[in-house]
Amino acid sequence: MPRDPVTRGRVDVLASGDMTQTQRVVVVGAGLMGSGIAQVSAVAGHDVVLRDVTDEALARGRAGVEQSLNRFVAKDRISRDDADAALARITTTTDLDVVAEADVVVEAVFESLEVKTGVFTEARPAGPARCRAGHEHLGHPDHPDRRCHRTARVGGRHALLLAGADDAGSASLVRGYKTSDETLATARAFAESVGKTVVVVNRDVAGFVTTRLISALVVEAVKLLESGVATAEDIDTACRLGFGHPMGPLQTADLTGVDILRNASRNIYTETQDEKFAPPETLNRMVTAGDIGRKSGRGFYPYD
């Protein structure tokens, strides 16, 4: 199976069943992360329903999957037939009741606890009793608003790929205080079924592991840039050649979204009061100005 496209942020996973068999996967949120999760799930052989609130968002998400698969075909990473078959496994809907028929539900909506809690609240009555609930980094697995049926079945999953689209991704499985071993095993099985390497995070802390590390690196890189120590290009080159990173921290920020990384850093700083996570002025000004990376056409680099 080809390695997956870049997926970012946290995703909530509600899962059950034997993940070695074809599953019905519902991805709530058709943005870049959600469409990426839909793609890797479909390529792995799962049937996927991509859900968002508007037909326009769904059209963009599906088009993004098609473009990504076409790039894999052009690079001989996947056959044309396999790409077409994967795309055919993805259907779209604006109806959240579709979770009632799901084996796996992946929540990948906007990075806001209020928005995510709203999705959980709306989906909970329709969700099958066999589902296991996950969480996102703005909340906690044990938070009352994030619970699904039984708190012992609440766990987390997050898929975060910091490198380029040609590199394999990892899935961090985050244990809440009452997360059961069964829930963890089910989430691991799903992550591995879509080609992820699993990392278990035993305690729920802001940023978990990967976001905490990349946030510290991006914040320091921005400080070096704004103080004139080095250019963005040279900072990224130093990290690529010096540390073997496929992408430098500022390139990663542009790809992930400058706003997303700023918010992640700010959330970690709020919880830890550790100054190394405090977003620098340049990062805040870029977000205010709308220069938030590739999706806006300009971040630390310009994009066509």
Automatic annotation (TrEMBL):
Location of the 3-hydroxyacyl-CoA dehydrogenase NAD binding domain: 25-125
Keyword presence, Oxidoreductase: yes
Tree of life domain: Bacteria
Cited InterPro entries: 3-OHacyl-CoA_DH (IPR022694), 3-OHacyl-CoA_DH_CS (IPR006180), 3-OHacyl-CoA_DH_NAD-bd (IPR006176), 3HC_DH_C (IPR006108), 6-PGluconate_DH-like_C_sf (IPR008927), 6PGD_dom2 (IPR013328), NAD(P)-bd_dom_sf (IPR036291)
Pathway: Lipid metabolism; butanoate metabolism
Keywords tagged on the record: Oxidoreductase
Start and end residues of each 3-hydroxyacyl-CoA dehydrogenase C-terminal domain: 207-303
Keyword Oxidoreductase on entry: yes
Recorded family membership: Belongs to the 3-hydroxyacyl-CoA dehydrogenase family.
Stored PANTHER family: 3-HYDROXYACYL-COA DEHYDROGENASE FAMILY PROTEIN (PTHR48075), 3-HYDROXYBUTYRYL-COA DEHYDROGENASE (PTHR48075:SF5)
Designated name of the protein: 3-hydroxybutyryl-CoA dehydrogenase
Species for this entry: Angustibacter aerolatus
